Amino acid sequence: MDNEMILLDGFPLTGPAREGVWKRLGEIEGWFDSPDPKRKSVQRENGDGNYPSETHYESRLITFTGRVTSKNHEYLHEAGNRLVALPGRGSKQFVVKGHGPTQEAIVDPRGKVSITFPTDTRMEFQIPLEAVDPFKYGERRYKSVASGASDTVFHRGTVEAWPSVTVSGSMPDGYTVTIGGQSVSIPMGIPSGVTHTIDYRRRRLYINGELFMGAFGAQNFRPIPPGQRTTVALSAPSGSGTAGVTVYDTYI
Hints:
By secondary structure, this protein is mainly β. It is built from one helix and 23 strands.
């Protein structure tokens, strides 16, 4: 596709380059499919079927296969040297553009990068990757709300998305963040110049970037459903502040 762009750690795996042309071969295995679901199956000994259990997903296993063509054989080896180093030690950004909304995932190496030279002017390669977080993320959405007020937040993904909430201001007696009618409260005060970040997915509080344990009062964490405007509010018994809600379009 003319508008396709695949990047790993910011390096383009498709399109024209300085002395060659990079092209994808076949599908991006494991990218457009859903990862395998997983659940604990416990049989009902004295009844039909099994007990219900939550469904989660296995890691997303991705394999990218490509080709580089160039009249410069030295360039092909230079490209190969770059490719084998790209996955590094993991936590690299894998981005797919040109196939609907731009989506990305954080990936680790899943095996060796394979390099072959069928001819002096062509190199073929395969990069096996694993996204331990199986979800794919798109556009960032942000909404700021002042204490005593409310607003709405949404995302255009296809599954529930977990928000991150950054709170600042001066609220000596703590505060409560309410999303979709469900509240998360911090009973300790927040002074001016200090920032609290609430990671809803991991249910953690960070104060000026440092993890702080045991700070929550009410703990009704909830995700943002796709395509639905969800009300967000910040309240405090004293003082004032703001809450910035960040959510990404989320896909599986």
